[in-house]
Design goal:
By secondary structure, the protein is mainly α. The chain folds into 2 domains: 39 residues; 70 residues, High-Potential Iron-Sulfur Protein, Chain A (Irregular), CATH 4.10.490.10. 39% of the residues lie in helices and 6% in strands. A hairpin with a 7-residue loop joins strand 1 and strand 2. It binds iron/sulfur cluster (SF4). Iron/sulfur cluster binds next to loops.
């Protein structure tokens, strides 16, 4: 490869890298936003309704432990501090960190 061809190739690589890095946050917002909206469990979902799931735990009539939240449930795998996260009972769909349902089980320490 000649020096000219190598320079051209290097410049093209740098341009592509810069463009990809610059576009990545926008792609994440677009794709991430769509995925979250599509995968959130609705209280009207038949399984959610059967389990008395409420996105706001304070609205769940059967909840007796006032400290019980999805974020402290063994089936919840969301990150601490996130507003929502996956629940194993809903095939990994997102539930509210402040939600609750009758299947709540204290997270193992
Ligand atoms: S099983 Fe646990 S994490 Fe899933 S909805 Fe019920 S309380 Fe929330």
């Amino acid at each position: 490869m000649s020096n000219h061809a190598a320079d051209h190739s290097r410049r093209r690589f740098i341009k592509l890298t810069v463009a990809t890095v610059a576009a990545a946050p926008f792609a994440e917002v677009l794709l991430g936003g769509t995925a979250i909206a599509a995968d959130t469990v609705a209280e009207t979902d038949p399984q959610a309704a059967a389990l008395g799931y409420k996105a706001d735990a304070t609205k769940a009539e059967k909840r007796t432990d006032k400290t019980a939240l999805c974020s402290s449930c063994n089936f919840y795998t969301g990150k601490a501090g996130d507003a929502s996260g996956p629940c194993a009972l809903f095939q990994g769909k997102l539930v509210s960190a402040n939600g609750w349902c009758t299947a709540w089980a204290k997270k193992a320490a």
